[in-house]
Write a structure and sequence with these properties.
This protein has helices at about 45-60, 75-90, 125-130, 175-205, 225-230, 230-235, 275-280, and strands spanning about 5-15, 25-30, 30-35, 65-70, 90-95, 105-110, 115-125, 145-150, 155-160, 210-215, 245, 260, 265, 270-275, 280-285, 315-319. The chain has about 325 residues and is of the alpha+beta class. The longest helix is centred in the middle third of the chain and has 29 residues, at about 175-205.
Length: about 325
């Protein structure tokens, strides 16, 4: 007789978890600062690792799978996994291949090998991916990472994403409107690539358990054509495409958020699921301990609070 259990999948932007030799900026009291070293000549990376480890243990409560964004290397992500494993007795393993991003930003997975099995992991590739994310793109970014996991005798395919952001360098603020429109168009192209992969998976097997997640950067900024170009709407599907359901709106909370930009609540982080996985859906929650918290806490390694500028989004399923 098959036994089922509740499993947790989380998406979490780790805010520039870079190796120790890379520059990282944080915003404190409205000003961008580079706290590479404090008064005690202490590097930032150990503080990030300490805070994120506390977050995974106590705020996320050790989910089976964490889809992460803004990682500098697989090695530094494994450092975080090792820190959690040492404290909690888990067996998290990190996967995070290089991408085409100009700053070296990668995406990845942390998964607990005691509770789930990685069947396959691969980065999307091909001409369409290169045009939307890679070297043929007008602004190269992060190619999506696919993880196929076996969870309680079920196979779940997770497509982890970090779409183009709306960051505008100070030197280009005069072109903000035009750049926001270009970014929106690029995110739409990226969403169409991922939707194409979803279509292939669900055409081959309509009962496939598919989850699309990550930082989709679907912002309120610069979106007069949002109905046409919203990447979330593209991912949800249209016409004869089998639908994906965006989980967080199921809570029907108009005040929900995962990010705050200039005082406005935004939902940048999303989890969308195929019809068969929706049947197994139990709950979804944005875990609020970062976005609305005091920026001064960036440098306090005794607390998980403000370990990132994003709040993680977490979903549970009965598998």
């Amino acid at each position: 007789m098959k036994t089922s259990r509740t499993i947790t999948i989380t998406t979490f932007n780790l805010y520039n978890l870079f190796d120790a030799d890379k520059a990282v900026q944080v915003r404190i009291n409205g000003e961008w600062q580079r706290p590479f070293r404090q008064a005690q000549d202490k590097p930032l990376l150990p503080i990030q690792l300490a805070k994120l480890s506390l977050a995974i243990q106590h705020e996320l409560a050790l989910p089976e799978i964490i889809a992460v964004q803004e990682v500098g290397s697989e090695a530094v992500l494994q450092q975080l996994a090792d820190k959690v494993n040492g404290a909690a007795g888990t067996t998290y393993r990190a996967i995070s291949p290089p991408t085409s991003d100009r700053r070296g930003i990668q995406i990845g997975f942390l998964y607990d090998q005691q509770r789930v099995e990685l069947v396959q992991a691969y980065q999307l590739s091909g001409a369409a991916v290169a045009a939307a994310f890679g070297t043929a793109s007008p602004n190269p970014g992060r190619e999506p990472l696919v993880g196929v996991f076996r969870i309680a005798d079920e196979k779940v395919t997770i497509i982890n994403n970090h779409f183009k952001s709306n960051y505008i360098p100070e030197a280009q603020t005069a072109e903000t409107k035009q750049l926001l429109q270009r970014n929106l168009a690029l995110r739409a192209a990226q969403a169409r690539v991922v939707r194409g992969v979803v279509n292939s998976l669900l055409t081959a097997n309509p009962e496939a358990l598919v989850l699309v997640t990550g930082d989709l950067n679907s912002s309120k900024r610069g979106r007069p054509q949002m109905d046409l170009l919203d990447p979330v709407k593209i991912l949800e599907g249209a016409g004869e495409e089998r639908p994906l359901t965006n989980l967080l709106p199921l809570k029907q909370d108009i005040h929900e958020y995962t990010f705050i930009w200039e005082g406005e609540n935004e939902i940048l982080d999303h989890i969308l699921v195929s019809p068969a996985l929706l049947e197994k859906f139990v709950s979804v929650a944005a875990l609020h301990f970062n976005a609305a918290s005091a920026e001064a806490l960036w440098l306090d390694e005794e607390t998980a609070v403000r370990c990132s500028d994003h709040d993680p989004l977490q979903a549970q399923f009965q598998c």
